[in-house]
Every structure is written in C-alpha cells, then in structure tokens.
Amino acid sequence: xxxxxxxxxxxxxxxxxxxxxxxxxxxxxxxxxxxxxxxxxxxxxxxxxxxxxxxxxxxxxxxxxxxxxxxxxxxxxxxxxxxxxxxxxxxxxxxxxxxxxxxxxxxxxxxxxxxxxxxxxxxxxxxxxxxxxxxxxxxxxxxxxxxxxxxxxxxxxxxxxxxxxxxxxxxxxxxxxxxxxxxxxxxxxxxxxxxxxxxxxxxxxxxxxxxxxxxxxxxxxxxxxxxxxxxxxxxxxxxxxxxxxxxxxxxxxxxxxxxxxxxxxxxxxxxxxxxxxxxxxxxxxxxxxxxxxxxxxxxxxxxxxxxxxxxxxxxxxxx
Length: 319
Hints:
Layout: E1 4-6, E2 8-14, H1 18-27, H2 34-44, H3 53-67, E3 69-76, H4 82-91, E4 96-101, H5 109-118, E5 123-126, H6 128-131, H7 138-148, E6 154-157, H8 165-169, H9 187-192, E7 198-201, H10 208-217, E8 221-224, H11 241-252, E9 257-258, H12 272-285, H13 289-304, E10 316-318
Parallel strand pairs: 2-3, 3-4, 4-5, 5-6, 6-7, 7-8, 8-9
Antiparallel strand pairs: 1-10
C-alpha cells in the first residue's frame, strides 16, 4: 500500500521513574540511599533515571521523537508513584497521558484515586492477580465508580498471564493469584458502567477466548495490543499473532484496538520491534489505511480526548 502519515500513540509505556526504583530498593530490604538505588539498577542492567520526573519525561520525549511517536500513555507501575507520572504529563500535556496502578482493597484507595484523577491522570489500572482481589468486590466497584465520574477516564484491567521480570531479576517474591485473572470476571463491572471504557491489555494475555466473549458482550471493552504477546504459545491449535488480530477484529472491530508496545526503560528505550511486528500483521490482513490509523493512535485519542499539535507531535510516514 502507499505510505500514509499516522500520528502514533502508544497505549502502554511504563514510566519507571527514580521513585519507582526507590520503592523497589526498599522492597529489597535496603535503605533507599542513592548508592543502593544505583545498585538496584545495576542488577537490572538499566540506566538510572534522573531524580526529576520532568527531566526523565524529556528523555522519553526525545526517544519518542526519534521514532516518530506522537504520544504515549505513561503507566505509574507501582502504587505510590502517581506523582511521578503527574509531573511528566504536566510538563508535556500534548505528548503524554497518565495511568496509575492501584490496589482498591487498601483503606485509602478512594482518596488516592481522587487525588490522581485531580492531578490529570486518566487511567485507573487494576492488577487483580498481583494484589489478590476479585473484580466482584464492593471496593473495586467503588473505585471504578469514582473513575466513571471523571470524564475522559478509562479503567485498565490486567488479566491472564502475569510475570514481572523486574521482580524476578531482583529476587523479589511475586505471590500472584491467577485465579483472579479471568477476563470474564470483568463482565458484570463493565455492564454496570456502560459509558466507561475498560481496557484489557495483551488481548487477555492467554485468555483469548474469554476476552473475546467479554468484548462481544460489552461494547465498552477495548484491547491493548501491547508487547510481543508470547502467550500465544499456550493456544491450541497453534495460533499466530495474525490469527489473534483477525479474531479480535472480527469481534471487537478496529475501533476497539489500541496499539501499545509495553516499553520500559533505558538503554532499551522504545520497542520499535513491536510496531514492525504488528504492521506486518496489518499487511497480512490487508487492513486499510483508516483502520490502521485508528488502531495506531486514533482510538486512544478518541477515548482520552487529546489531539497532538505542532511539529513536535511526531507524525511520521508508516508503510
């Protein structure tokens, strides 16, 4: 097909801030001194981010510009790091959306949600398997209700396979409970809040059938396409990522798919290989220009109401 210019928006980019590594260092049982924090990064083989979230955000802007990416949803990947992402989006409101992880079972959850949303964050992220709670809990509904009262918000719910490589490399325990990972558990909640978008990353990360059933019943459920989706190796018969996209497009349509990479930190930077892999899938499926543009950024902007402006917005030719 001929080249078209798409303003790409990455729906899944982890903002591993200095404070994030401070908290991880404390979880290792070490005092969060600069030396110990640097030691945590050394174990991982990653670069130490600047202590200022604004400076670290500028590093990400430079990286996204290098790849021609207009915008990205930044995830505060540990509860308690909402402030880092809030500073990043305050510094670059036309480039970033802010998401934050929350354990809704904690006593101060309602206050944390309100403060995060008031600071400009848009995505409430739930990890039922990590924090060991059922999506049927009353406190979960209360948290989601707060998000539903804030226009332009979404609820991101990680289902399926959950493996946090950072924790494994640092020797930190991951006592996850996969019995809380089934996307079907989201059905009643999504029905209860029909105007609120719910985003299931990685097509349900192994629960493809259940995710497709959920999306067929709830038009407010979206899929985030992020990562290389290696969970496909668990599917029978052997399906490819092209098969997964074909099924997702058949059930949810192109307007409910959100391109993402699951990029993390530096020196790796933005994972261009995910984009290349998914563009090859689009070619294999014969996806038209309009649908590609929707998946690669238009849908995320439509949900969150942010349109890139100016020359720095990162539109680039994508074949």
